[in-house]
Every structure is written in structure tokens, then in C-alpha cells.
From TrEMBL:
Location relative to the cell: Cell outer membrane
Record-annotated Outer membrane lipoprotein BamD-like domain positions: 25-219
Family as reported in the entry's similarity comment: Belongs to the BamD family.
One record GO biological process: Gram-negative-bacterium-type cell outer membrane assembly
Signal sequence residues: 1-21
Pfam families: YfiO
Originating organism: Wolbachia endosymbiont of Polyergus mexicanus
Keywords: Cell outer membrane, Membrane, Signal
Chief localisation class: membrane
Protein name as it appears in the record: Outer membrane protein assembly factor BamD
One GO CC term, this protein: cell outer membrane
């Protein structure tokens, strides 16, 4: 049994070595074209392995940079959004001047966005994605993807606000005012949210219940200023 395992191991090592020896006989361009062919055929697992070989054999090269990008796209197309985001993180770190950066940042936002509704990940993924979307808007205001990213940012904001509002209401009903205040304060920074005014009203109520009249008055002033702004006629 032991000899059989040793034989199998030696066979695998030899096969692996021979495979890489064959790859070394090919140019970067040939390896990349073979990998892209697999990608075009939607054989994404094989394509990812092929792209990885290019990165291993020719690190930091032009084709390695392209391989990293398409490896991320392959993971995204397979639904492996965490791996896709990781590939884009690596690209941004290693190729900080890469020509595909607008698309790389875009794909990273989408990869994180697709993970938001995974319940076990909680709200942190939504907050991270909103941060990345905001970063994208600041970095690439003229990008062809800017409108889509702005729309994603609005949807994420509403997702966060809806969740925080629901939890805040739960704590408020239980009389856990400090916990409720924390949740409603998270919404207070999103003035475009449909929950903004309701959250400010709840912040006033929660602070008043705790005898924090000064803080309650501050939120009343904030709400009044917001209402006056909304009532102002458009120019």
C-alpha cells in the first residue's frame, strides 16, 4: 500500500514537471491565447488554472496582468464572488498603474455587491460595498460604468437603512434605547434614505426617554432644517 502511494506521488510529480516543461516551451502570448480560448468556451475552471500558470511563469508581465483580470472575471462568471473580489484586490495592489483599473474597480464593487444578501455575512459586507462604490465614484467620475455604480450605491444605502431601521424599531419597542439610538444614528448620515425622517423622530423619542433633552433638541433642529430644505421651491 505504501509503495503504491509513493509510486502515485512520483507519477504526479513527474506529470506536473512535464506539464510545466511543456509550458516553458511556449511563449507568453501562446499561453495567454490558449487560456483565453478556454475562457471563451466558458471552461472557467480550466481557464483559471491556465491564467495562474501565466502568472507563475511570467510574474508582473503584461500578459500576467491580463491573466489576473480574466481570472477574476472567470470567478465572477462562476458565481465565486469572494474569489473574484480577491483577484481584483490583488490586481489593484500589484498593478496600481494598470490600464484596466476602471474595470477592475468596477468588478470589485460588483463582486462585493453580489455577496450582500448572504445572511451570514451581516451588514459589514453592505457597508464595505458602499465604501468601495463611493471610492469608485470619486476615482472614476467619467467612467462608462459610473451611472451603474451610482445606482448600486443608492440600492446599498436603502438596504442598509432598511435593515438598521428594522433593528432600531425592535430595540425601541423593548425599551433598549441606547441600542436603538445606535441603529438610528447609522441612518442619520443617509439623508436621501426614505427612513431618514422617521429615524430622526425615533432618535428624538429615544433621547427624550433617557432624559437627554439637549440631544433630543439637536435632532429636532436637524429635522426642522431638513423639512425647510425639502419645502424650499426649486429654482
Amino acid at each position: 500500500m505504501y509503495k503504491t502511494l509513493i509510486t502515485c506521488f512520483i507519477f504526479l510529480i513527474c506529470s506536473f514537471t512535464q506539464s510545466y516543461a511543456n509550458d516553458l516551451e511556449k511563449t507568453e502570448t501562446e499561453l495567454y491565447e490558449e487560456a483565453v480560448e478556454l475562457f471563451d468556451q466558458k471552461k472557467y475552471k480550466q481557464a483559471i488554472r491556465a491564467f495562474q500558470k501565466i502568472e507563475d511563469l511570467y510574474p508582473f508581465s503584461y500578459w500576467a496582468r491580463k491573466a489576473k483580470l480574466l481570472s477574476g472575471v472567470s470567478h465572477y462568471n462562476m458565481g465565486n464572488y469572494s474569489s473574484a473580489a480577491s483577484d481584483m484586490d490583488d490586481y489593484i495592489y500589484v498593478y496600481s498603474n494598470g490600464e484596466d483599473l476602471p474595470y477592475v474597480y468596477y468588478l470589485r464593487v460588483l463582486s462585493c455587491y453580489m455577496q450582500i444578501n448572504k445572511v451570514q455575512l451581516g451588514q459589514q459586507t453592505a457597508y464595505k460595498t458602499l465604501e468601495l462604490a463611493t471610492e469608485y465614484i470619486n476615482l472614476f467620475p467619467d467612467s462608462e460604468y459610473i451611472d451603474e455604480i451610482k445606482e448600486k450605491a443608492k440600492l446599498i444605502t436603502e438596504h442598509i437603512s432598511t435593515k438598521e431601521y428594522s433593528i432600531g424599531e425592535f430595540y425601541l419597542r423593548r425599551g433598549e434605547y441606547l441600542a436603538a439610538i445606535k441603529r438610528f444614528q447609522n441612518i442619520a448620515s443617509y439623508k436621501d434614505s426614505k427612513y431618514f425622517s422617521k429615524s430622526i423622530n425615533y432618535l428624538i423619542a429615544a433621547h427624550s426617554a433617557l432624559g437627554l433633552d439637549l440631544e433630543a433638541e439637536q435632532y429636532e433642529s436637524m429635522l426642522l432644517a431638513e423639512n425647510l430644505q425639502d419645502a424650499k421651491p426649486e429654482a
